[in-house]
Design a protein that fits this description.
Number of strands: 19
Helix content: 25-40%
Radius of gyration: 22 Å
Shape: elongated
Structural class: alpha+beta
Distance between the termini: 54 Å
CATH topology of the largest domain: Creatine Amidinohydrolase
Mean pLDDT: 97
CATH superfamily of the largest domain: Creatinase/methionine aminopeptidase superfamily
Strand order of the largest sheet: 4-3-2-1-5-6
Number of helices: 10
CATH architecture of the largest domain: Alpha-Beta Complex
Order of helices and strands: HEHEEHEHEHEHHHEEEEEHHEEEEEEEE
Amino acid sequence: MFEALERLPEEEMADRLAKCRAALAKVAPEAGGLLVFSRLAIYYLTGTWANGVLWLPASGKPVLACRKGKERALLESPLQTIVGFRSYGDLMPLCEKAGSPITSICAAEQSGLSWNLAALLSSRLPGVSFVPGDAALAMAQAQKSAWELAKIRLCGARHAEGLMERLPAVIQPGMSEREITRKCWDVFFDLGHQGQLRMTNGDEIFLGHIAAGDSGNYPSVFNGPVGLRGEHPALPFSGYAGAVWKKGGVLTIDNGFTIEGYVTDKTQVYFAGKASAIPDSVRRGHDLCMRVQQAVAKRLTPGAKPSELYALALSIVAEAGMDVGFMGLDGNKVRFLGHGIGLAIDAWPVIAKGFDEPLEAGMTLALEPKFGIPDIGMVGVENTFEVTEQGGKCLTGDRYDIICVE
């Protein structure tokens, strides 16, 4: 006999299913339900990391079909209908038998399937036409319940303790990025970090970015402003053994912390020396980023539009005459200021042009104003905030300045 390590509360699951159905009615009213394929989205809706397909009808009983691990799903999820299946061709009769037939027009989580599997699904569900359903999942996950917020708040507190209190005591100038990575790992694991950092496209990140000096401007394939050399071209994350944090140089750590699946995002900049020795260009760049974060965080209230918050940030930077370097140098420059966060690091919405759907209380977002300085590296901040009536409540610490390590 086995017991689940955690079982999603039934009322929590019911609330998530209702939010997803409401969002589906908004983005795809013609669809009779939603087919969900990614394990992350299935976990959100059912509480189990299932290998299979979830059919969420617009009304009626959801059906979780598992290729493998049905027994684990029964332990972890309060969902009433969990069945086994072998082929996409089994889905229609299984759902029919469960009393929740698949409808002729279905929304589908299109990002959750590869091209060849999508073609196979279409061939096994004759007479069914598909419309995009990803936006419904993103919108449902954006507003966090009290159950989720408790996890994220704990995660943020541990994240802040790790980067701001424990790590400065065990790193020093002369260490390589890889040595600093190992120290960071030790600190984070001692605080309960569970290892995996997930993205909505299915990518998983190893720890995050460890960038000493001009590594912070190294060409990056990651959709963020901080550059890094990484371990190797095959693993462009974490820190490079050949890059050393030198006296008088900056060190930028941009990483996530995860507890029970939920993630916070934070960047901390360190300086190898006394505060009085920090170069003026570093101080000016970092101060600008703190001003941008403060101004935008103050306006993280219900009803605020992400696109307008992004425009506010750009106006502050333009007024300071510091457009060059803001949010990255050259090809590393990105056109956003922040992003939603929860089970994935890069969740909806994005603080960027074109995102006009108003924020809601309980959403969690990471703000990450950064500034790249040629030959020196990357400075700036990133913190995870909760949207409240009083403005953004920072969940990852309340000190944002550069930490000096001698």
